[in-house]
């Protein structure tokens, strides 16, 4: 398989995992409040939550303290259950926000490549430029701050692109020499229409693809 394709897919998988987590909480029938969470650190308003006791479209409406959150929809049954979180839509084929009902969404696209000059018999030095497009509509609620959810997602993506402990570079599991955010991050916080958007420029220095 193409080196470019392997590296791009590895980056996509890493970004997709950035807000994926799980937690256990207790639901009460007809109530959107989830209690008994061990730790709400890392949970944020607008984060989708999925469980067998709550609607599939539920998301976090507020983080009420260290052990409790309120969802956007009420539980359909009572009991302690595991919740999972993550992007509702992910793809490597970009779509416009109005065409993406299930948000937050993540799209990754190849934007350009830089090939550095090289001497004879030296391997190619290739830097791939990608863009991660993030959509969030958490700001559609009248009292919500749409940019706040976007900030949490940006923080999560920044964290997963940090080098692993004891390493100086993010190598995507050894597939790249280095992968990092570089350049201006374009932000549209969605204050007017509730549709928040971020475009994150990511560079990847890859092994000789020839």
Describe this entry's structure for a reader.
The chain is an alpha+beta fold. The protein has 2 domains: 3-18 and 87-206, STM4215-like; 21-85. 14% of the residues lie in helices and 32% in strands. It is built from 2 helices and 12 strands; from the N terminus they run αβββββββββαβββ. The strands form 2 sheets. Strands 3-6-1-2-5-4 form a 6-stranded antiparallel beta sheet, with no helix packed on it. Strands 7, 8, 9, 10, 11 and 12 form a 6-stranded mixed beta sheet that branches. The relative contact order is 0.19. The model has no long low-confidence stretch (mean pLDDT 91).
End-to-end Cα distance: 12 Å
Q: Catalogue the unreliable spans.
A: none
Radius of gyration: 19 Å
Number of helices: 2
Give me the side-by-side strand order of the main sheet. Answer: 3-6-1-2-5-4
CATH architecture of the largest domain: 2-Layer Sandwich
And the CATH topology of the largest domain? STM4215-like
Order of secondary-structure elements: HEEEEEEEEEHEEE
Sheet/helix structural class = alpha+beta
The percent range for strand residues is 25-35%
User: How many β strands by DSSP?
Assistant: 12
Supply the number of structural domains. Answer: 2
Percent helix among the residues? 10-25%
Shape: elongated
Mean pLDDT: 91
Largest sheet: 6 strands, antiparallel
- Give the class-level CATH name of the largest domain: Alpha Beta
Keyword list:
210 residues; alpha+beta; STM4215-like; 2 domains; 6-stranded antiparallel beta sheet; 6-stranded mixed beta sheet; 2 helices; elongated
């Amino acid at each position: 398989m193409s080196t470019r394709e392997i590296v791009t897919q590895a980056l996509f998988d890493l970004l997709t995992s950035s807000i994926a987590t799980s937690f256990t909480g207790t639901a009460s029938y007809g109530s959107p409040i989830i209690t008994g969470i061990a730790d709400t650190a890392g949970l944020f308003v607008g984060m989708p939550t999925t469980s067998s006791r709550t609607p599939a479209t539920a998301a976090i409406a507020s983080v009420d303290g260290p052990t409790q959150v309120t969802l956007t929809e009420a539980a359909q049954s009572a009991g302690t259950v595991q919740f999972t979180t993550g992007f509702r839509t992910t793809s490597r084929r970009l779509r416009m926000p109005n065409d993406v009902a299930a948000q937050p969404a993540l799209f990754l696209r190849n934007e350009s490549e830089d090939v550095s000059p090289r001497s004879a018999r030296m391997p190619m030095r290739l830097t791939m430029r990608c863009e991660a497009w993030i959509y969030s509509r958490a700001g559609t609620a009248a009292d919500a701050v749409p940019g706040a959810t976007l900030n949490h997602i940006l923080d999560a993506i920044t964290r997963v692109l940090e080098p692993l402990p004891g390493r100086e570079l993010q190598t995507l599991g050894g597939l790249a020499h280095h992968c990092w955010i570089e350049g201006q991050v374009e932000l549209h916080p969605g204050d007017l229409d509730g549709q928040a958007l971020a475009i994150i420029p990511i560079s990847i220095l890859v092994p000789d693809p020839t």
